[in-house]
Amino acid sequence: MKQVVQVRLLPTPAQASALLATLNACNTAASWLSQQMHTTGIFRKFDVQKRFYTELRERFGLAAQPAIRVIGKTCDAYTTLRANLTAGNYGPPGSERRRKVEDTPIVFRPQAAQPFDARCLSWQLGEAGREGPVSIWTTTGRLRNVRIVGHPEQLALLRSRPAIGETDLICRDGVWVLHAVIDSPEASRRVPVNGFLGVDVGIVNIATTSDGDRMFGARLNRYRKRQQRIRKRLQAKKTSSARRLLKKRRRKEARFAADVNHQISKRIVAEAERTGRGIAIEDLRGIRERVRLRKPQRATLHSWAFARLGQFLAYKAQRVGVVLVQVDPAYTSQQCHRCGWIDKKNRRSQASFICGRCGFVGHADHNAAHNIAAHGVVRWGEVMRPHAAPTLAAS
């Protein structure tokens, strides 16, 4: 199981200047290489390295291994671009947006993240503590004893691993950060003998479980609206001080939402682990393209971080061995979990559910979570026993 450990880098002013020059050189080289790849139509990493490696080193003064990392970074960017084009994320073939993306080479920001490996960056982590130095390659020479600081648990993870994989050097708002990838032991997956815990995600209620536990979204939605009002007011001023404040506040809302999603996912996984159940969630990929909303509602939909919540649930569940399955969300909010009757009229409002056949009355999100739990049992049966009926009972 791959895990990312984040630590803070504390360079001196001279070291920070060298690191900044390194990022600029690597990203300038990556943009030049991207232009050459786009012009020649060569995108395979082996072919790119054979064709442009020598010129890349001579033109931008890169050492051998950093040049290899620049090539790998650029090739990975084009691999991601092709995957997005294949998935239709830039529109159907022939559309103006897709044509523009296909005709334009990828350009890297001057301070975009740069990957390093063990030959470019080495860790000298001593005994337990919050600090430790690293040695990192730069265009002006190798910097030794660059201070790092991080949470004791994060640094303990780094100390416990014999080898640390790729590490990204990131400069974000003047703050230097290292993202190190390590291999963590994956817990053995436990069979959900007690069924599944269904999780219905939404905007009003961020998550509702089949146990009736609701994580309300009112606080997060109020925070988003307040941030939107502040941004609107600052953008209308168009002054240098307003622009400085906007730059200072960027990503603040995203960090707040990520913290809320971390708390919710931790709570759900802990409950599933305690009760010996798996977790069933809806597969909501493509919902932004499917749903049509009025203009005032679009900002709310596009700021809904359901994918991030799903990612947090996935890796937290994998770390403790809890099974997580994704189910088809079709009709989960219209079907009565008691009698199975499906009717659009069953859901009277956002919160109210009244079955038109059996008369069941309950909260709409709680009812949907029950249906998702039942679908999780079926999905688990399809995964583990493709030619046999599922035998587990939904929670």
The percent range for strand residues is 15-25%
Task: Name the poorly predicted regions.
Answer: 388-395
In whole angstroms, the N-to-C terminal distance is 28 Å
Q: Write down the Rg.
A: 25 Å
Chain-averaged pLDDT? 89
Structural class: alpha+beta
| Overall geometry | globular
Main sheet summary? 7 strands, antiparallel
Number of strands: 14
Helical fraction? 40-55%
Order of helices and strands: EHHHHEEEEHEEEEEHHHEHHHEEEH
Task: Give the strand order, joined by hyphens, for the main sheet.
Answer: 2-6-7-1-5-4-3
Number of helices: 12
Characterise the protein shown here.
By secondary structure, this protein is of the alpha+beta class. Helix 1 crosses helix 2. The protein starts with a strand and ends in an 11-residue tail after the last helix.
What's the short version?
The chain is α+β, with helices and mostly antiparallel strands.
Tell me the layout of helices and strands.
Layout lengths: L1 E9 L2 H28 L4 H16 L3 H23 L9 H8 L10 E3 L4 E3 L7 E6 L6 E7 L2 H9 L6 E6 L2 E9 L12 E6 L3 E5 L4 E3 L1 H20 L2 H10 L2 H24 L2 E5 L4 H4 L4 H8 L3 H15 L3 E4 L24 E3 L6 E3 H21 L11
Parallel strand pairs: 8-11, 11-12
Antiparallel strand pairs: 1-5, 1-7, 2-6, 3-4, 4-5, 6-7, 8-9, 9-10, 13-14
Helix pairs in contact: 1-2, 1-3, 2-3, 6-7, 6-8, 8-11
Keywords:
alpha+beta; single chain; 395 residues; 14 strands
